[in-house]
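Example 9 (inverse folding). The structure is encoded as follows.
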C-alpha cells in the first residue's frame, strides 16, 4: 500500500513536471494568484485600528491603548483597557509602541484578536 502510494506519487510528479514548467513559462500561475491575494488583503487591512501602547499587564492579559475609531465595534477614539485573546500577543510590544489591531467583543469584553507593530 505504502510502496504503491509512493510509486503513484513519483509517477504523478514526473508527469506533472513538464506541465508545471510550461505554465510557469506562460506566467499562468502568477495571473491566477495575484488578483486573489490582493482582494483578500484589502478588507483585513481596512479592519485594523491604529493604537499607541500606554500600559501592558501581561499577567491579566490586558493592554491599555490610546486607539483610533474601532469601526466594527462602533467605538470612538479613546484610551482604554482591552483584553488580548492570548497573553503571548503582548510579548512583541512595549509601552510607547504604535500598533495596529483588530478587536471584537467577546463575552462582553472588548478583546484584541490580532495585533501587530505599526512600523
Ligand atoms: Cu475604546
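The amino acid assigned to each position is listed next.
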Amino acid at each position: 500500500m505504502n510502496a504503491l502510494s509512493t510509486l503513484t506519487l513519483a509517477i504523478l510528479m514526473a508527469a506533472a513536471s513538464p506541465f508545471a514548467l510550461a505554465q510557469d513559462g506562460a506566467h499562468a500561475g502568477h495571473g491566477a494568484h495575484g488578483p486573489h491575494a490582493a482582494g483578500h488583503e484589502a478588507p483585513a487591512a481596512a479592519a485594523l485600528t491604529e493604537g499607541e501602547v500606554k500600559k501592558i499587564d501581561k499577567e491579566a492579559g490586558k493592554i491599555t491603548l490610546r486607539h483610533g475609531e474601532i469601526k466594527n465595534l462602533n467605538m470612538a477614539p479613546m484610551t482604554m483597557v482591552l483584553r488580548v485573546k492570548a497573553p503571548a500577543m503582548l510579548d512583541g510590544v512595549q509601552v510607547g509602541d504604535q500598533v495596529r489591531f483588530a478587536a471584537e467583543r467577546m463575552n462582553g469584553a472588548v478583546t484584541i484578536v490580532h495585533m501587530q507593530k505599526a512600523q
